[in-house]
């Protein structure tokens, strides 16, 4: 299996400028403020993400298409430069499609909303193809809690299938693999593995072979929705049929504290080293080809230690995944 990263906010600090860096150091701005201030510039600097991945001995970079970003403004020349640079460095690329605001309506029961969301996602798929991405990752959309059951849910599921067929057809034509990722428990729908498999089965019945980007950290959020986590927690992978995996997202979660994406080598979530070793065996057995790590930093102290976190976590994961 190959190992890659979505760098999330691990590379953001350098884009703050000296005044912003000092304000963060003394506590005048928070890490979330840093993210808001620099994410457009940091996301646009794809060459740097590729270079850092190369220096860490990784194989892959997943770009974060969460809004805001400037990806749809890239010229053909810039996209060609990115594609050529990544290929020269031996780093493959993928794109995580937008999953908030308009992008979160791919399953909307209102057809105009759904069309707007699917249309937006198709623009991002075209961007991904232009820079040579091998796949795109799509969240299944978000609904209010009162649309999460019964006939409402049937409408939501049917419209998600419709969106996947539209987006997936374009992706296939452009040579990009489309993956569907499971939601968190806080999104109300498409949280459970069986829900995702059932949706993908309906898509495959129509001749499109989409894959399941299983995010185990997302699945762990069920602990804060009154649902059980198996012991050991990675046992859930045994329940997912073979043949659905290609790229997977790897991150951890700390229940009760509701802490997303802590550094994996710190082992403060549900995935201790023995769990990750078993996870690696299970996902390889199920056919996974690429693991994309999604660690994020949340505190000023972590920002100051960002390079060490990247290095130590990468070494830790390479010792497990080989």
Describe the overall structure:
The protein is an alpha/beta fold. It has a single domain (2-321), classed as TIM Barrel. 44% of the residues lie in helices and 12% in strands. The protein has eleven helices and ten strands. The protein has helices at 17-25, 31-44, 46-55, 76-89, 111-130, 150-173, 193-205, 216-220, 273-285, 300-304, 306-321, and strands at residues 2-5, 60-64, 92-96, 135-138, 177-181, 211-213, 247-250, 253-254, 259-260, 290-293. The strands form two sheets. An eight-stranded parallel β-sheet has the order 6-5-4-3-2-1-10-7. Helix 5 (111-130) links the parallel strand 3 (92-96) and strand 4. Helix 3 runs parallel beside helix 4 (76-89), helix 5 (111-130) runs parallel beside helix 6 (150-173) and helix 6 (150-173) crosses helix 7 (193-205). The longest helix is centred in the middle third of the chain and has 24 residues, at 150-173.
Strand content: 5-15%
CATH topology: TIM Barrel
Mean pLDDT: 97
- How many strand elements? 10
- Relevant CATH superfamily: Divalent-metal-dependent TIM barrel enzymes
Arrangement of strands in the largest sheet: 6-5-4-3-2-1-10-7
**CATH class annotation:** Alpha Beta
Total domains = 1
What order do the SSEs take from the amino end to the carboxyl end, as H and E?
Answer: EHHHEHEHEHEHEHEEEHEHH
Which regions are unreliable across 5 or more consecutive residues at pLDDT < 50? none
Per CATH, which architecture?
Answer: Alpha-Beta Barrel
> Can you summarize the main beta sheet?
8 strands, parallel
**Tally of contiguous helical segments:** 11
Helix content: 40-55%
Which secondary-structure class do the elements indicate? alpha/beta
């Amino acid at each position: 299996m190959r190992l890659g990263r979505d760098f999330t906010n691990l590379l953001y600090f350098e884009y703050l400028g000296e005044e912003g860096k000092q304000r963060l150091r003394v506590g005048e701005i928070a890490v979330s403020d840093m993210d808001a201030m620099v994410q457009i510039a940091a996301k646009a600097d794809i060459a740097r993400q590729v270079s850092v991945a190369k220096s860490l001995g990784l194989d892959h970079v997943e770009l974060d298409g969460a809004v805001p970003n400037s990806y749809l403004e890239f010229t053909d020349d810039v996209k060609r430069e990115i594609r050529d640079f990544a290929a020269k460095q031996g780093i493959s690329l993928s794109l995580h499609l937008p999953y908030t605001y308009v992008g979160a309506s791919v399953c909307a029961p209102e057809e105009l909303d759904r069309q707007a969301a699917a249309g937006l996602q198709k623009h991002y798929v075209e961007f991904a193809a232009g820079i040579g991405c091998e796949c795109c990752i799509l969240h299944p959309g978000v609904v209010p809690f009162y649309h999460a059951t019964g006939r409402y849910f049937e409408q939501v599921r049917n419209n998600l299938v419709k969106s996947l067929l539209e987006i997936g057809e374009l992706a296939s034509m452009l040579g990009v693999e489309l993956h569907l990722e499971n939601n968190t428990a806080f999104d109300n729908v498409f949280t459970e593995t069986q829900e995702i498999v059932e949706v993908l089965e309906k898509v495959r019945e129509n001749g499109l072979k989409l894959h399941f980007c299983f995010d185990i950290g997302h699945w762990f959020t069920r602990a804060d929705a009154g649902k059980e986590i198996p012991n050991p927690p990675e046992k859930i992978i045994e329940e997912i049929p073979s043949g659905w995996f290609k790229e997977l997202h790897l991150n951890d979660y700390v229940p009760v504290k509701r802490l997303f994406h802590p550094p994996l080598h710190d082992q403060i979530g549900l995935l201790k080293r023995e769990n990750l070793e078993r996870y690696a065996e299970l996902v390889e057995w199920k056919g996974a080809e690429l693991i994309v790590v999604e660690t994020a930093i949340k505190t000023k102290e972590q920002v100051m230690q960002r390079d060490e976190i990247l290095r130590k976590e990468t070494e830790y994961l390479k010792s497990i995944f080989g």
